[in-house]
Description:
Elements: E1 2-18, E2 28-33, E3 40-41, E4 46-51, E5 56-60, E6 65-70, E7 77-78, E8 83-101, H1 135-143, H2 162-174, H3 206-221, E9 224-232, H4 234-242, H5 256-270, E10 276-280, E11 285-288, E12 294-296, E13 298-300, E14 303-305, E15 308-309, H6 317-332, E16 346-350, E17 369-373, E18 377-383, E19 386-400, H7 406-420, H8 425-429
Parallel strand pairs: 12-16, 16-17
Antiparallel strand pairs: 1-8, 2-4, 2-7, 3-6, 4-5, 6-8, 9-19, 10-11, 12-15, 13-14, 17-19, 18-19
Helix pairs in contact: 5-6, 5-7
Amino acid sequence: MAANQCQLNYKMSDKEIKVPNIGEFKDVEVIEVLVSNGQSVSKNDPLITIESDKSSVEIPASFDGKVNSVKVKVGDRVSEGDLILTVEQEKNLEQKTIKEEEPVANQNQVEKITKVNPAQNLIKKNNSETSSASPKVRKFARELGVNINEIVGSERQGRIVEDDVKNFISSKINKAPDKTELQPQKIVSEFSHSDFGEIEIKDMPRVKKLASMYLVNSWTTIPHVTNHDEADITEMEEFRNSLTDTFTGERKKITPLAFIIKALVSTLKKFSTFNSSIEDIEKGKMTLKKYYHIGIAVDTPHGLMVPKLRNVNNKNINLISEELKTISEKCRNLKIDKKEFFGGSMTITSLGGIGGSFFTPIINYPEVAILGVGRSSKKNIYYENKYQGRIMLPLSLSYDHRIIDGAEAARFCNELKENLGKDFAYKLAV
């Protein structure tokens, strides 16, 4: 069946969309930009959301077209008459009458209208798509930290309601975490540092740049808990200061760290969980290490390095002290093999030579614990039924709470203190 139809020729023309009369709103903040350059919009589609102290309001499109240039961004403040964006709009130039076949509708065809199932909220939408929701719902989603553009609405034309936001959150909680979702979001500042004064841009030291990736991974994937305690090292220090060379009679310069390393190994032998790594948390698999390789945080001009002292359980205090000097020098001169930074049992990071007491060290992944050591100080302690001046060493034990609980960590600290305490120093030296 034939009918007369009109064929239209068009050209594109730019039109501006400005902030309309929005009542009492003046100099209000743009909290959402709902469209992007090149996106097609229809009349009444939301373009931006503005928010005052009283409420949030969506500014809609006043006509159909394609977004040419968005003139505002999140954080901008706008008032009536301010330009929001420009839109390319089709303009009718010419009309011609042509003859063409009119398609006949098939009566057997049935239009299917499907209501969206809230369970589909697990499906992420394309980032270019803009969700339809009221300012109230958008505010509700923001307060809960939810990206509303990831939600599929259950109402007509995919409009999102509060129940959709709640269902989306529930689905995320019940869903196994995606590794990509654990990556930290990049924060973009509204201002540049140069806006406030003179600055200088420098390259980060390569060592610090490489270490930062491991630190971020450790901090974002491991649930850290830190126990703080103090060890009485009075006898250990007396013994250490009494050590002399057999041949020369000169006092031996043995760092306290050598004794701490030996005490830590002795403690690890009793608490094997601390000398382990989690291989597959979902399958509940862990690796128990039969070796004792202690990581030592070394302060260098290039950044912090953590080489490993191998098999310290088989070495005496003198040998450990010498190896500490050697490996520290190698790190400072960048003459150490990369492999020496891996395969550790547990790490010690000491600030004793610099200062400070308690802190929160970050676990050196894939290890499950790290021992922080502060600067020792003399304190008046109630000891053997009277107050005495005792040398106390601050200890900060950070551990992976997925595999080590607080009670076990407390018992570990108690054992470590015993191993650093009275009458144990001599045993550690051999």
